[in-house]
Model the fold of this input.
Amino acid sequence: SQKIEQNSEALNIQEGKTATLTCNYTNYSPAYLQWYRQDPGRGPVFLLLIRENEKEKRKERLKVTFDTTLKQSLFHITASQPADSATYLCALGMDSSYKLIFGSGTRLLVRP
Amino acid sequence: GAVVSQHPSRVICKSGTSVKIECRSLDFQATTMFWYRQFPKQSLMLMATSNEGSKATYEQGVEKDKFLINHASLTLSTLTVTSAHPEDSSFYICSARDRGGDYGYTFGSGTRLTVV
Done:
């Protein structure tokens, strides 16, 4: 069956450390993968997109990697801040349609 | 940047009534919009793809007669929950694709529907 898995348990880290979140998928062949941030009671906000032929993408303190062999994406936040506390969602995209398929998200808590 | 405005943000309705949720793209034209629902601590589940000027495409298991979608213009899509029941209580979110490419999708702020 097709699955997208993100750590269901919250990730709790100290301010200033690097947060690493994982997204694994099974039985999908995505053309690209996106990461979103969602705050409670709000819609998701787009962060980064990485395509299947890209290994790594960076934007300010954010870095995303994409390994199509392992069927995994890692999302890193360096020098984390309490304001980074939120739920982070990965989403797979297929070129055949514009639909996104979301993982269940991982909650990140950054302690001051 | 691209903005999608969604209204209302919260609505409480009585069982058996209908509720309309609006989603507007404010500074771009959206030929395609998407409607999701999200239960607490769960993922976004795609309900349907709304195409301007044509019928919406519903995901498997979503009742098209219950969740009516209208995309009458390039900037407005509406979702009407008809004959709402308590099990329809959820968080409904719309999204639109602006420029595509590396710009991702823009989401509305969501509508919390409570059916009593």
